[in-house]
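Q: What changes when copper (II) ion is included in the input?
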Amino acid sequence: MYFDIFCRIIQGDRTLELSNTAYLVGDKRNIFVFLLSKLLGVISNTIFFTTMRIFIWIVAMFMLTTACTIDKTDFESENNTVVPDDYEFKEVVSIDKGSYHIRVEALHGKLYKGYNEIRLRITEATTQAPIQEGKVTFLPVLTTLEGNKETCPNQYALTYDKAEEVYKGFSVFTQESTQGDWKITITMEDDNGTLTVSQPIAVEKQVNKNLNMTSFIGSDTESYLIALVAPLKPKVAENELVAAIYKLDSSNTAVGENDPTFKDKYVLAEDYTLLLDPRMPEPSMGNHSSPHNKDLVQKEDGFYYGIVNYTMTGNWTLNFILLNKAGLILKGTKVPTDFTPGVEGKKSELFIDTLF
Amino acid sequence: MVMRILTTLLILGYSTAVLAQETKIKQDSVSTVLEEISMLVEKKKKIETEMKMAVSVDEFLASSEQISFIKRGAYAWEPMLNNMSTERSTLTIDGMHIFGACTDKMDPITSYVESNNLSTIDIKSGQEGGMHGSTIAGSIDLKRKTTAFGRSNPWAGGYQTGYEFNNKQFFNLANVSFSGKKLAGDASIAYREASNYKDGNNDEVKHSQYKKFNTSLGLAYKTSELSSVRLDAIFDVAKDVGFPALPMDLWLSRAIITSLSYKQLFEDQFIKVWDTKVYYNAIEHYMDDTTRPENLVHMDMPGWSTTYGLLSKANFKQGNYSSELQLNAYNNLSIAEMRMYPQDRTERTMFAYSWPWVTTTYAGLSLNNTVEFSEANRVNFGGSIGVNYNYSKYVDFNWIFHPGAPQEKTRFLPSLHANYEIDVNRFNFSIGAGYGHRAPSVSEAYGYYIYNSYDRYDYIGNPDLKNEISNEINASVGYKDQRFSLQAKVNYFYIKNYIIGRILSLGSPMNYQSVGVKGYTSLDYATLFNFALTADYHILDNLHWKGNVTYAKGQDNTKGNLPFIRPFSYNTALHYSYRDFGIQTSVHGDLKQRDFSPEYGESLTPSYTVWNASIDYTFYVNNFKAVVQVGAENLLNEYYSTYADWGNIPRMGRNIFTSFKINF
Ligand SMILES: [Cu+2]
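A: The predicted holo structure follows.
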């Protein structure tokens, strides 16, 4: 737009000239029109053209200035640099069995170590009509390199979502496929009995550090697992932090998926408390922390909810202390709270690193 | 067609123009009109001091006893009016609001002008300064040069150059003005360059260099016998400016300040002048810490500030009553970013906003009235009502410390003031009172981890801060005869909800130099008392003495001292002229700062005395008047720093200066 007028001025476009006699000084009721006419009066004057070079110089200066020397940060896309900006559920694998078509979906169409939301779309193969309100189960099994069978924290009985016509669940994969072979087993009850399908799957390294997990043995000698569930994509803001905390049931002696209790090897840790102290580990940040964080406590859905405030983008460490019902420390240590520039921040014995 | 006109107007208005108020139309049929309103305008002071004829804007301001400075180096001093920092005063250029783009206050508005494009600086104390917008401390309005139409010699100009030995400052200032029957214009250009200065121990103060380029242009066209339009622009670039008291320097700062104004005079009517202007200014500011290898973290801290505004004012006069009505509206967007680089540069950078895209929109109407009961006594009274609206685009940043704080906030800012003046023989007395609100500044309300290297805290703004409310009384007594004059002024401010940073027990610092986090909070109240005594004595026709002393005290609600309150200060100057020579000498200093504030990071500053002297010689080259001047500041090379020197950096040691000026 500036360029346009700039060119017209250079070419001496006299269309800019307009008569200003229509509005006399006496007729000032419409101040704006009056002002306008006065201004145009000046523009129309040839004097304007004699001072053109200076004018153009100012315009040039202005355009130079409005075009900033350094661009402003595009904050909306700033967060996309390390966290994938892809929230779409895509197909991981499709299985055709009998007259059914089963499509397994996850974010990016891949399964990663840590927490994964799983969606199953089951349709009648020929009509493509969705199968509604079915009884569907989902169970991942890992055969380790040593040949042992393991499972993982998992929603066994999937929940049907009427609106989206999908069966929803989740799995927390404990290992990547480099540590063994993962296989999923899906069952579905229909009029003809139970349909069972098995399919090998690949579990990849977690690409989103905000869904990292950790497993450990607590002071009660039990095995625990903590996986981050949300936020997928944190903001420089107050973020609701959601974690899944599981305990390996030591009394469960099932050894393979043929054992009906095998699916219950991991049980939800009930009524624990996860104390939170987020800090930036980078030495130059001097153990920087944030205010108004809230420890994680369990809600009705079994997951643990708290609040983490991230004061800026970058690497963060969520330092945890896990307490049991009685308030005993199962794992984790208090970290120093003082500001120590130049020194890498000490981490709790129990921590998960995030990055956004 | 209308759209096209409108677009043209907008482009012109917002892109190039500026307007000038004060289009003087002397020697003209309307001069009588102007004379009538001239009483409303302060007497103009030339931009030079007693000591020095070639001064920077800062040096000129420093010659006012109402102004003190926070200094972070040799450049861009932050003016304090009535011992209050820039948040509490309105700083304008010809009434235009401009907001610095630096979170560390490296760029007060005074840094965007140059002495050769200003005609004078109008300082008003307290609520009397509320015409341009809400204030507590008063207003500082930088008035640009505007040449009147129809001057007898159409072309005039001046050129100044000089060299200052201490910091190897070399400057060249030129200005030219044209005055025709229909067209008048002013243009100026200036360049200054200085190296590091040396303190009183002859040690170099590192990072105190600067380079500044400034140019301005004003064009006025007489549209009728009684009206004119004016287009003004200032373009200013500062580069490689060191701030020894801060952990970083300025790489580049640029400002474009433009306005387009229309002025209409009226004959034989109640309304005398109507002056309207639209303006636009944009500032970009980029700091640089790569010159400081001692820094642990490399940081980028760019800032931007853009303001659009409208100012419309009218002067009225009838009999012994005169008044000024002013409408002010502006919209400002302030953005400041910080990006920290980890030691391992392959790692992710850390980013946050220190000003999360904060919009301030203000609209206010102010009125000032004067009634002259007689030649010797008059009353001034007035007031204003303003609406201040803030919007923080990335309010998440503010929510970290203030969860749930509103993203938008509207405030009403009323003010009232009155004063009565009476002359009794050679004495004059005045007494006045004022009441006014101000909204918190962008940093105070929305700032996020802004590092203050003075007390070494990171500051967090609070969007919910209450308006600061000032109650003020002032008085002055003066005596004047042909040779001698004496003037005493006092004022007292009782400021409710005084905004100041207090240590937060929350969070931890982000900037590696800092020791903790402070949040802006409101004290119940604070009080400020200012006293100034100035005297002037023409001992002989060619021997002139001037002196002043000031005293101030500021206390918070627990009787603790407020920071940056000037201790008892004095200044005495003698000027002697003999034929074409002028000789002047001055001594000024502060006493020991007894009432310092350890709570706000201050330590005791000892007293100091500085002695200056200069000599000038006036001569004519082809009928053009020329002056040369040689002088020295801090003749005794005293090593000192003042109460308001950020980080107690030492001031300049002995500085020999030379300058040459020619007018044609
Ligand atoms: Cu700065």
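Observations recorded in class: Residues 51 and 187 of chain A are 84 Å apart (CA to CA).
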